[in-house]
Specification:
5-stranded parallel β-sheet, 50% helix, 10 helices, Arc Repressor Mutant, subunit A, Rossmann fold
Length: 218
Amino acid sequence: MDTITVMLIDDHRVVRQGLRDFLELQGDIEVVGEASSGAEGVQLARDLLPDIVLMDLVMPGIDGVETTRQIKTVSPSSKVIVLTSFSDDNKVFPAIKAGAISYLLKDISPEELAHAIRAAQRNEAVLHPEVAAKLMQEFSAPRSSETTVDQLTPREMDVLRLVAKGMSNKEIADTLVISEKTTKTHLSNILSKLHLADRTQVAIYALRKRLVPMDDGN
């Protein structure tokens, strides 16, 4: 089993220690670094290139949203999981747009956190139920200028639904009996046609359009 490398960014030492103590009990997760500020976190991510970054949002200096944006620049392969006490709209939406794959609140159980880390490693988005509800509400109003799924081909629709279920490109390719290269092409077309930035936004879009059940995303 491959080890998932995790970096912690939180300005509270006690929080970082608690996270480290739990995660180091997991046989497949290794905490490789800690940062107490966004600027420090960006530098550390550049040096360590961790698989997963657990990101607080409210910190001195640059906040978690900007830190997420910068980390996705210096270490594009790192998956950022927001772990915060705040579910305000003005934090949720900017964090996801900045590149966070998952958005969790600090009241989740340790087991749920470990699940989210493993899911992120598989490119699966995990949203706290309260956050998922906000996203559904935010996107429920129709937008007259929004491109609809009618613009997608039947095969692109198949790929969209499987992305929303959390499948990787390889899993989608195996399911549809196509190549990974073809899968990537379909995904690129979906992102372009629907004006979406990444797989997380594809999953949110599919949920909003009720193309997959809310409880069928994992």
